[in-house]
Design brief:
Elements: H1 10-15, H2 29-40, H3 43-57, H4 61-85, H5 92-99, H6 102-137, H7 160-175, H8 177-202, H9 218-229, H10 237-240, H11 249-278, H12 289-296, H13 300-334, H14 353-369, H15 372-400, H16 413-429, H17 433-457, H18 459-462
InterPro entries: AA/rel_permease1
GO cellular component, one term: membrane
Protein name: Amino acid permease
């Protein structure tokens, strides 16, 4: 047990947030908020909303979003407090290391590697569906073999568009954070504008009869829907992984977390009500449900606009989560828990390009050959476990170190943190048991890696506090 619960020094982590780490500080409040919105609004609003309504909750999917949003908001407040305290790359991994110790940090870091990688794959699959819908809208046909993974349709072999977008995002992120942030800003503006357009135009085509019965699957269906759409209401945690690339992290990170979640939840609730009001919920279990309902009401031009916006919006999600995955990997490698080779930054672009490219290739393979529903629930359980650890850690630290400098203090933390834990546990409980099995297999593999390598190479054991910056490639 010796060393399993050694912690990083909180004072050392707070000592100098501008210390040179090899990464480049270029992100302000708007760029950070855009990363958060980019991480939240995407495949959930354009794909999973329809699928959750059709198979889980019916029109009551709006309530599913509220339930998932409460769990996410409780965790968001905890993330905001931590982000204002510890302006260091790694997000929940670093927070857990500072409070609960190395073994817990490893568990959450390994968990986040799975979560962020799987999210990229899920989002890429959803993007492939909208690319196909856009091509169909312009009467452009592509061979069936390249339209989706095996088992998702007759003659399908690979989701080729999903593969290509994963590789493009890896290339872009490896080129530099500033370039990636600029493109992300543009895509976020586009998708927010189109979401407002969808809600405004769609409201005129809502048929109240489609909203009855409102909860055809009952209370259990609403909670099952929340377990599925929870995938759509997180993503703000991705911006906290970029702490060492923020200009003023202790001020801007908490604000960006809360702003991004507020904007996104408003969009989700509005979209879900309009979507289920425009079409019977039973018809929404398709690859591109939002585009489909506008075609069905005789607005094919809107369908084309939506497909373009969905592609832009979903690409911004890919950027946010691929960036986050690479930064978690970078932080764990810099701490010695994974080989330092992965923490070498590019001498010109100042990015952790090695994990960036590995994540790009892995997600390309998963997205190309796996159905979306299987991957989405696996991503959800990883995030919920992260939320449990973050909510627990921030409450422990509030009592253990009440004197610590905090850029933001979560209100009513004694109620908010337990709410985040309990709601996350409830949402885990409604997931498919097979998802638990897959997750446990991944965690057992992680423990093998930790005890075989990470525990013996941990830099905190030799050099407590913040490890020195890695060398360049």
């Amino acid at each position: 047990m010796n060393g399993l619960f050694r912690t990083k020094s909180l004072d050392a982590l707070q000592a100098d947030p501008t210390v040179r780490t090899g990464l480049r500080r270029t992100l302000g409040l708007w760029q950070l908020t855009a990363i958060g919105i980019g991480g939240i609004i995407g495949v959930g609003i354009f794909v999973l909303t329809g699928q959750a309504a059709a198979t889980k909750a019916g029109p009551a999917v709006a309530i599913s979003f509220v339930i998932a949003g409460i769990a996410s908001a409780a965790a968001a407040l905890c993330y905001a407090e931590f982000a204002g305290m510890i302006p260091v790359a790694g997000s929940a991994y670093t927070y857990g290391y500072a409070v609960l110790g190395e073994l817990v940090a490893w568990i959450i870091g390994w968990d986040l590697l799975l979560e962020y990688t799987v999210v990229v794959a899920v989002v890429a699959i959803g993007l492939g569906g909208y690319v196909n819908a856009l091509l169909d809208a312009f009467d452009l046909q592509v061979p069936a073999w390249m339209q989706g993974a095996p088992g998702t349709g007759e003659g399908r072999v690979v989701n080729l568009f999903a593969v290509l977008i994963c590789l493009f995002v890896a290339w872009l992120l490896a080129r530099g954070i500033k370039e990636s942030a600029r493109l992300n800003n543009v895509m976020v503006v586009i998708k927010l504008a189109v979401v407002v357009l969808i809600i405004t135009v769609g409201a005129f085509y809502v048929n109240p009869d489609n909203l009855t019965p409102f909860a055809p699957f009952g209370i259990s269906g609403i909670f099952a829907g929340a377990g599925l759409v929870f995938f759509a209401v997180y993503g703000y945690d991705t911006l906290t992984t970029a702490a060492e690339e923020a200009v003023n992290p202790q001020r801007d990170l908490p604000r960006a977390v809360l702003l991004s979640l507020l904007v996104s939840m408003t969009a989700y609730i509005g979209m879900s009500l309009v979507l289920t009001g425009m079409a019977p919920y039973q018809t929404l279990n398709v690859d591109a449900p939002v585009a489909k309902v506008f075609v069905d009401v005789g607005l094919p031009v809107m369908s084309q606009i939506i497909s373009v916006a969905a592609i832009a919006g979903i690409t911004s999600v890919l950027l946010a989560f691929a960036l986050a995955g690479a930064r978690i990997w970078f932080a764990m490698s810099r701490d010695g828990l994974l080989p330092i080779w992965f923490a070498r930054v590019h001498p010109t672009h100042r990015t952790p390009y090695r994990p960036t490219w590995i994540i790009g290739v892995v997600t390309a393979v998963v997205a190309g050959f796996t159905p979306i529903a299987v991957v989405a629930e696996l991503a959800n359980i990883g995030t919920l476990v992260a939320f449990i650890i973050v909510c627990t850690s921030v409450l422990v630290l509030r009592y253990r170190r009440p004197d610590a400098r905090r850029g933001f203090r979560a209100p009513a933390l004694v109620a908010v943190a337990p709410l985040g834990v309990v709601s996350s546990v409830v949402l885990i409980a409604v997931l498919d048991p097979l998802t638990w099995v897959r997750f446990l297999i991944w965690m057992l593999l992680g423990l093998v890696v930790y005890f075989a390598y990470g525990r013996r190479h941990s830099r905190v054991a030799v050099e407590p506090g913040v490890p020195a910056a890695p060398e360049e490639a």
